Structures are given as C-alpha cells and as structure tokens.
Amino acid sequence: MRYTKGKNLAIILIAIGALMLLGKFIPFLGFVTGTIMSYLIPVIMIAIGYYGIKRGNALFGYIILIIGVLYLLSKLAWLIGPLLAIGLIVFGISMLRDKGARRY
User: Fold this and answer.
1) pLDDT tens-digit profile of 31-83?
2) Do the Cβ atoms of 51 and 61 come closer than 8 Å?
3) Are 49 and 66 in contact (CB under 8 A)?
4) Which of 2, 23, 27, 61 could form a disulfide with 53 if both were Cys (CB 3.0 to 4.6 A apart)?
5) DSSP labels for the chain?
C-alpha cells in the first residue's frame, strides 16, 4: 500500500473528526478536544494564509494569515502578558547593574 500526500491528509482528517465526535460523547475528551481545536484552528489558518501567499493569491493569503495570527495571539494572551512582564523586569535589572556602561 503506497502512501501519498492525499492519503496522509485523509488519515489526519479522519483522526481529527473521530476525536471531535468522541468529544461529544465523553465529557473529559470533549474538554481536551475543544482545547486542542481552539489552538489548532488559528495555526491552520496561518498555514492556509502562508500557502495562499506562496501560490500567488497574496490578498487572500494575507487576510487569512492576519486573522489567524490575531486569533492565536488572543488565545496566547495569558502567556504573552507574564512573559512581557518578566522581560521588563530583567531589562530594568540589567539597566541598574550597568550604571554607565551602556547608554540607551
């Protein structure tokens, strides 16, 4: 049995569909599946946007890409805020240690 690109995609789609269907019947699996899908959909949108840009349909590609990036940023806001705060703290401490060595 030869595997081709289309067969691999079909197997992935069947697996995702099965997880979604099982998530409707098993409550815990539904929570896990919903969480995974909420991050997977923006990533797929980014991939489709990139594919659209590479294939020559730049307008469609950029629109889908920007929507996917914004959607993913909103999903990862809980992580971006604390990382930004840690970065500001580290930057402030480094400025205090290097009193006159570097000027910004």
Assistant:
1) 777 788 888 889 989 999 998 999 888 899 999 999 999 999 998 888 888 99
2) yes
3) yes
4) 61
5) ----HHHHHHHHHHHHHHHHHHHHHSHHHHHHHHHHHHHHHHHHHHHHHHHHHHTT-HHHHHHHHHHHHHHHHHHTHHHHHHHHHHHHHHHHHHHHHSTTT---
